[in-house]
Amino acid sequence: MAAHRCSLSALLLIICSLLVFIVADSEKATLTGDHHATAVDNLQTVTETEEGAAAEEPAVEEERRWEETVVEEATADKEDTSAPETVVQSSVPQPKDDFQEELVIRPLHSGDIYASFQFRTLWETDFMRGNKVSHYRLFPKSLGQVISKFSVRELHISFTQGYWRTMQWGQPFLPSPPGAELWVWFQDSVTDVDGTWKELTNVLSGIFCASLNFIDSTNTVQPSASFKPLGIGNVTDHRFLRYATLPREIVCTENLTPWKKLLPCGSKAGLAVLLKSEKLFHSSFHSQAVHIRPVCQDWQCKTTSWELRQTLNVVFDLHTPGQGKLEWSLFKMFSRTLTEACPLASSSKIYIDITDDPQGEQFEVSPATHLLSQAMVLGDRRTFSVYDLTQQITFGTVRSLNLLIRWKSSEGDMLRPLLHAERYVAGYGLQTGEIHTLMYNNHPYRSFPVLLLDSVPWYLRLYIHTLTVTSKGKDNKPSYIHYQPSKDRVRPHLLEMLVQLPPNSVTEVTVQFERALLKWTEYTPDPNHGFYVGSSVISSLVPSIVAMDTNSTREQPLFSSFFPCKEESSYFMRVYTEPLLVNLPTPDFSMPYNVICLTCTVVAVGYGSLYNLLTRSFQIEEPSPGLAKRIANIIRKMRGVPPL
Amino acid sequence: MAAPLTLLLLVAVTVRAALYRSSLADLISERVEVVSPLTAWKRVVEGLALLDLGVSPYSGDVFHETPLIIYLFHFLVDYAEITFMLADVITAVALYLSVKDYNKQVFRKQKYALEADRYPLDCLELIRSPKEMQYIPLKVAMFYLLNPFTILSCVAKSTCGLNNAVIALFVLSTIKGNVLLSAIFLSLATYQSIYPLTLCAAALLYLLQRQYIPVNLRRFSFWWFVAQYAFMYLGSLFVIVGLSFFLLGSWDFLPSVYGFILSVPDLTPNIGLFWYFFAEMFEHFRLFFLCVFQINVFFYTVPLSIKLKEHPVFLIFMQLAVISIFKSYPTVGDIAASFIKHHKASSASSLNIFLVSCVLLACSALFPVLWHLWIYAGSANSNFYYAITLLFNVAQILLVSDYFYAFLRREHHLSHGLYLKRKDGSEATLVLK
Q1: Is B284 exposed, middle or buried (0-12, 13-18, 19+ CB in 10 A)?
Q2: pLDDT tens track for A45-72
Q3: What is the band of B422 on the pLDDT scale with cuts at 50, 70, 90?
Q4: Which residue of B45, B62, B430 is in closest CB contact with A485?
Q5: What is the mean pLDDT of chain B?
């Protein structure tokens, strides 16, 4: 007992000395003038020298933040050094969950506006240890239960309306194919993966009010290389991976409402108040997604936590050709302005991409901000204006923030995306066809390998021996091909291959297929509209043109740090091609009875004539007696007289 | 006699080789009338490509050939054209030889019957003269080799040509009286596509007749022979299936080949009766009608064997015709094979053969036209093509039943005399009763 007490006091002593050390250390850091405190903000905050009025504010801010950091680090000595923003949180013992929200707005060269919302909830818990998790704070309970019930290790789901035009808009922060996409890594303790997957899709279908229950074995594949786990965990056995797309899924309000309900503040406060469906769906592109994965809490990855990322990307077409004036504002886009951050959020920010216009020549942002940030996004160094919604000063005197961008001129050149792809069906008639996939490598001098994943439904029978890959007029043999042929009414074709794209080239992949005639009940209600074939997925590590800043690899904004990337000189990129619409031959739906009757008649003709010949024998024809004679014979028979 | 045959073979091979070189070959090999999912050459190549990729060809639903075919073409894929031409030549020669041999037997039988005065006097004109018999083998070979259906099937490299060769060899070995070879070739044919199983009865009847064993269920010698034949047949079938298993290392091919033939999952249009019927079928009746249609193919064996137990060679022909009409994925190649013995009974026929052949010709011309209208032009729908398949099948059925009728009638005349008289002495007409 005494020994026990002794060890306890020793532990206390150690903690105290540790505290003293940390305080001293951080003091030293500020004395040397290091921007340690601002780095906590995940950004390289730079003060703009041009604006003299704003010069004193950052200094004040820096001091305050430094204070926060000290308190923060003193109270929580083990984990979660990121995002120590609010004083409220740091005064109480550090909760094990954390919520951040941000909005990135990027003016596109086509005159459209790209707005990307990201909401991240981190929770240090273990769903897998029985059913102990019952108290939910920020993490949505419905998803938590799904994770523990179905032993999900990673879940990625997206609903997209419209097609992302890579050539006009550049790369999205998070790519997604048109329609619904779902891919899930299960824990390796799951024995019946297919059964669990079936149940999971039905549950998700209920949660998101989407037709995910139409995911069955005919549109589910197990990619061997294209979809690796994005969170921690080293199990990459693709038996535990399921991937499915529903290219025909229509995304609308009924999918947005349940998605918003997963947010801690709902649509009551914070950035989510902007998500009004009548505006969001009046857009060129809309994509909402949920990503769940286990992530590391600290450098050594001693503790893991679950990350829930909800993203919503939308492209507004505000360009009206009649009016020469181009401007947009939060109010014009979302018919709302911002008045506060979500009180539960530890960080709430708006970023505006001003890379193309650092001097304010092309457009003008108001209210102006002094905070700038740089980040590496998809191989490109971008500059952003930052608005921190947790600061009251952001909202100004009117207590509402309505960002406004006014275009002055509309010239400017976009950096062509290094990798993009397109796909189409060639051929005519309803018997055969050919799928062409074009992959463009726009890098001026480097070739890089890409992984192409194609999942084609069984009713387009692919002929793998007709597969050709050509680039620059020459045959380009894929170094890896994983092909799983389809089974009728059971599973789709899966074609995965690793192709090296030569620099500055177009690589064309063609494969022929044959269209099947289906049973009349297997057609959709509008069979002559055609059948959708999901997008091909092209995943690649693209060499970046800009050398990446190695110091900022860890402390990046959320939207640039999604895909883990070990190699600094290249970045991960995923491109989805267009879904295909393919016509199939159709039977006449109006005449099943006629067909059954007519075919059976023919069979009966065959049976009847053979039966006739088999059972009868030849006899000499007796001329049949006349009617009168027959009647007379009957009468004679009755009388007992021999017939005539 | 060999010189005309050689000439015929040369002509046939030349025609095929010329067509292989022409641009028509690609067009023909895509035609649904010529190739079915079971026999398409494109699918054989696909199977080989899958094998090269290290994927089992039977893991997908494109390849439905038997393992022996895939291993045959694994070595012969570069010589495929020669292989298919050779298969046609083998078929023709085998038919030639078997018909020649059969003619000799018919002659011998006829001579004995004449000597025994078994034929009525007035039907001497029905008896075959050696002169007209002389050219029959050549006619058969010519009919097979220069038949446009056979040529199309060969140019499309439909593996149905190989099946026909196996069946022709089976017929030859049966007629030559070689029990073992007959059983082996029959098991090969069964292995290729289940349906030739029904030829078993015909072969047995013929071999029994040849060895003068009466078909008597109470005789031991009858059962002993049946057991011998069944043992050889099943034994060789077992060996072949076992060999396929060892080549492939799995039983995947069983559901993929035989399950595919029997359950008809692929509804690609063809000239048969199955595709549209099962495309339009109500789901809960599907299994029932599938059973009915498949039993229909096998069902005729029993009554036909009873009726034709004295004429097993004609029985073989009838079986082939029934199979080619009612099988699940028929092609024109099958029909060509079933035509081969048509001449046999034709001498006594007062048939509507003109009508039937006109219908068959018109259908053959209309198939591509209506296919084009449906699939490419979009101005017709599936019913058009379906209607023509129905008509084609009706014509085939009429043809077969007419031949059957003619054959039965000839047999009746041979035993009862050609000019039948009624009791009152006036001329009588024959009717089936």
Answers
A1: exposed
A2: 333 333 333 333 333 333 333 333 333 3
A3: low
A4: B62
A5: 87
Closest CA relative to residue B84, chosen from B47, B39, B43, B51: B39
Using a CB-CB cut-off of 8 Å, the residues of chain B touching A587 are 276, 279-280, 382
Q: How far is residue A252 CA from its own chain's centroid?
A: 16
Q: What is the pLDDT of residues B40-81, one digit of tens each?
A: 999 999 999 999 999 999 998 899 999 999 989 999 989 999
pLDDT at residue number A51: 37
- Of all helices (H) and strands (E), which one includes residue A290? strand A285-296
Q: How far apart are CA A130 and CA A580, in angstroms?
A: 44
Residue of B430, B433, B400 lying closest to B415 (CA atoms):
B430
Measured in angstroms, the CA of B268 and the nearest CA of chain A are apart by: 6
Structure confidence by residue, pLDDT tens digits, B269-304 = 999 999 999 999 999 999 999 999 999 999 899 999
Q: Which residue of A has its CA nearest to B305?
A: A614
Hey, which residues does A543 pair with through a beta bridge? Answer: A570
CA–CA separation, A210 and A196 (whole Å): 18
* Rounded Cα gap, residues B344 and B399, in angstroms: 13
Half-sphere exposure of A302 (CA within 13 A, CB side): 6
- The β-bridge partners of A420 are A440
Least confident of A13-17, A25-29, A366-370, B260-264: A25-29
The Cα-based distances of B348 to A237, B340, B409, B419 in angstroms read 73, 18, 8, 13
Judge whether A592 is closer than 8 Å to chain B, CB to CB.
Answer: yes
**pLDDT tens for residues B348-389?**
455 577 888 889 899 999 999 999 999 999 899 999 999 999
Q: Measured between alpha carbons, how far is A308 from A122 in angstroms, rounded to an integer?
A: 6
Q: Who among A465, A587, A591 is closest to B45 (CB)?
A: A465
CB contact (8 A) between residue B420 and residue A620? yes
| Cis status, amide bond into A492, omega within 30 of 0 | no
Spell out the residues 6+ positions from residue B40 whose beta carbon is closer than 8 angstroms to its own: B29, B156, B158
- For residue A602, the distance in angstroms to the closest alpha carbon of chain B comes to 6
Contact: B273, A488; criterion CB under 8 Å? no
A108, burial (CB in 10 Å: exposed 0-12, middle 13-18, buried 19+): buried
SS3 A544: coil
The residue among B280 and A12 whose pLDDT is bigger is: B280
Tell me which residues of chain A, numbers 504 to 543, contact chain B at a CB-CB cutoff of 8 Å: 514, 516-521
Instruction: Indicate if ipTM > 0.90.
Output: yes
Of A614, A616, A629, A608, residue with least CA distance to B430: A616
By CB atoms closer than 10 A (0-12, 13-18, 19+), residue B125 is: exposed
Contact yes or no for A603 and B269 at CB 8 A:
no
Contact status, residue A386 vs residue A369, Cβ threshold 8 Å? yes
- The residue of chain B with its CA nearest to that of A583 is B375
**Cβ–Cβ of B431/A595 closer than 8 Å?**
no
Q: What is the 3-state secondary structure (H, E, C) of A345-392?
A: CCEEEEEEECCCCCCCCCEEEECCCCCEEEEEECCEEEEEEEEECCCH
For residue A471, CA distances in Å to A420, A506, A535 come to 15, 6, 21
| CA gap A562, A174 in Å, rounded | 8
**Residue B170 CB neighbour total at 10 angstroms:** 26
pLDDT at residue number B139: 82
Instruction: Indicate the pTM of the whole model.
Output: 0.82
**In chain A, which residues have their Cβ closer than 8 Å to the Cβ of B282?**
592
How far apart CA B318 and CA B337 sit, in angstroms, is 11
Closest alpha carbon to A564 in A543, A580, A541:
A541
Whether the CB-CB separation of A334 and A286 falls below 8 Å is answered with no
